[in-house]
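Students often ask why inverse folding is considered easier than folding. One informal answer: many sequences map to the same fold, so there is more than one right answer. In these notes we will look at a single instance of the problem. The structure comes first.
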């Protein structure tokens, strides 16, 4: 039982100095524990002692890629040296039913208290969500992202950002108007391997980059696959903006841009010109194979114009036997002092080779976390994997998005909204040259549109 302060103060009538000293010490010790004691200013802890900030995620869609991303959110960031943020999934939504969202949350080992919604409209109204991850097909990105932004939610949207540049311009305008974070989920940009490559270029190790070859292809034509022989696969379905350009070509373009555009001074860099060829997939009219030649304007001081060839295909693959050792590099970044090779798959590479003109060669392995720590983990690309490890590698982009939200930034560190827009404009031009048009309802900037 604590002695009340007023009683102690009233008892100081004795002239005994020792008694007064003891009572004074008692007052000093007891006052901080009193109910009315308030700390006016928070105590600032050293940065290395501060707790990670919790960022609350809402997952919009429940397909394979959403499952992979959500499971990655559950991997402790400290295991990869990230100490400033902590990911928590607080809600998920399926467009078909609440029960499907409930099963999704269970399958992804989300907290028991996470909310399940049977519509995206309900999800974006949840006041406990800090940021929404959009994992629907390309055709739905604009409508879904606009729904989240207009509801006041920060957004991480799967690639390709939208079906065209006009839609992305609209999203950027709304995000700026509402002071919200918006980022394209091109996970490859946030790999330690990608950061290493960009740093090598910036260091001048291979000199001025003059040319880049980038391929991301897979022999996945549905007609050759008994499971998708009805041509309804999203990969070739025009109603879903199917075809390799938006789905796989974005990775070839990612390597071209992060080596020839991201690395340039943002105040002086210019959009590239593009010439392309496209082969259509007969049964549906989607693109089947695309080859792009890009020219990036640069000053003579910076090496002059740089060229790039970016390719993607559903008919032939970057590594036909699935072994990087026999297929060779899928990315070649060539400078006047050497080149950097990146081995397939381009979206999730695990090996680089640096070859210099003086004869020096350096190979580096970049082991990615394997899905599931021995358990079957559907990785969003159509296969179960049993490799040891934990996570798939999507958490690096999640770390960046969460950090940006905590810091109050409105776009990603390694791909600005301006750069995402330039890439979308390039793909618009490629589609124009190839005569590829998607249905009006997925090309429009009108909102809302029921798809």
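Output (designed amino acids):
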């Amino acid at each position: 039982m604590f002695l009340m302060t007023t009683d102690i103060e009233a008892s100081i009538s004795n002239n005994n100095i020792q008694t007064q000293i003891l009572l004074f010490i008692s007052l000093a010790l007891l006052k901080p524990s009193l109910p009315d004691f308030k700390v006016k200013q928070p105590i600032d802890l050293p940065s290395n002692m501060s707790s990670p900030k919790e960022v609350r995620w809402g997952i919009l869609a429940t397909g394979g890629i959403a499952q992979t991303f959500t499971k990655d959110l559950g991997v402790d960031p400290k295991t990869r040296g990230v100490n400033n943020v902590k990911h928590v999934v607080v809600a998920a939504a399926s467009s078909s039913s609440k029960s499907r969202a409930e099963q999704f949350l269970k399958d992804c080992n989300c907290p028991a208290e996470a909310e399940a919604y049977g519509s995206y409209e309900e999800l974006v109204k949840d006041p406990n969500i800090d940021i929404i991850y959009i994992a629907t097909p390309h055709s739905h990105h604009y409508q879904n992202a606009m729904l989240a932004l207009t509801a006041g939610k920060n957004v991480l949207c799967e690639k390709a950002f939208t079906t065209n540049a006009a839609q992305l311009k609209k999203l950027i305008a709304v995000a700026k108007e509402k002071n919200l974070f918006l980022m394209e989920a091109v996970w490859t940009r946030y790999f330690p391997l990608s950061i290493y490559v960009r740093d090598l270029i910036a260091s001048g190790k291979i000199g001025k980059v003059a040319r880049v070859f980038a391929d991301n292809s897979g022999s996945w034509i549905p007609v050759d696959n008994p499971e998708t022989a009805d041509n309804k696969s999203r990969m070739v379905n025009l109603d879903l903006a199917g075809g390799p350009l938006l789905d796989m070509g974005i990775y070839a373009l990612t390597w071209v841009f992060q080596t020839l555009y991201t690395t340039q001074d943002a105040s002086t860099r210019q959009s590239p010109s593009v010439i392309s060829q496209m082969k259509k997939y007969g049964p549906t009219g989607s693109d089947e194979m695309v080859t792009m030649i890009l020219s990036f304007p640069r000053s003579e001081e910076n090496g002059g114009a740089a060229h790039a060839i970016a390719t993607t295909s559903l008919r032939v693959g970057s590594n036909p036997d699935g072994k990087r050792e026999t297929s060779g590099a899928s990315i070649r970044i060539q400078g006047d002092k050497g080149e950097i090779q990146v081995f397939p798959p381009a979206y999730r590479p695990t090996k680089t080779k640096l070859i210099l003109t003086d004869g020096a060669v350096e190979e580096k392995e970049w082991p990615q976390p394997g899905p599931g720590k021995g358990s079957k983990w559907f990785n969003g690309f159509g296969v179960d994997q049993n490799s040891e490890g934990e996570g798939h590698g999507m958490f690096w982009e999640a770390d960046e998005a969460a950090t940006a939200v905590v810091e109050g930034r409105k776009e990603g560190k390694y791909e600005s909204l301006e750069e995402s827009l330039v890439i979308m404009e390039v793909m618009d031009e490629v589609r124009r040259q190839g005569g590829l048009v998607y249905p009006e309802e997925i090309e429009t900037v009108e909102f809302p549109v029921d798809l």
